[in-house]
Amino acid sequence: xxxxxxxxxxSTPTPxxxxxPTPTVTDSTAPDGRAATLRQLLRxxxxxxxxxxxxxxxxxxxxxLAGMDEQFANAISTTLGIANNFxxxxxxxxxxxxxxxxxxxxxxxxxxxxxxxxxxxxLVFTDALGIDANLVKVGSLPLVLALQFALNKKWxxx
Length: 158
Prior knowledge:
By secondary structure, the protein is mainly alpha-helical. The chain has helices spanning about 1-10, 15, 20-65, 70-95, 100-130, 135-155.
């Protein structure tokens, strides 16, 4: 009888646990999570492309045509790119419209890391080694993109 009671007792929880979607959700969450992150990275990159185009055009105009120092031109052009990217990423990439001022301030703080990294690269490669500022600006972009995506995903739009 103990065996019958045990099997009855163990069969009672089994139907409760077997239809539970926890293993299914856990198994499907990882690929869905990765797919969602890849979709976000793709959108972030495409939106970043529009901000990049704006950033580069303004930088080239300010630095090459107006004769502005590369670090000041970089600060202005990058700020315009950051504002462009924030609006588009909030709407389309991370789809977050709550706490918009806090998110913008965080996004801008992350953007400042890009400005700082690029300015550091200007100091090393342009000022110290004599490499053209335009090349340094373009070369800094993949590094800045990777850093900022990680920071914005984990902090600005978390």
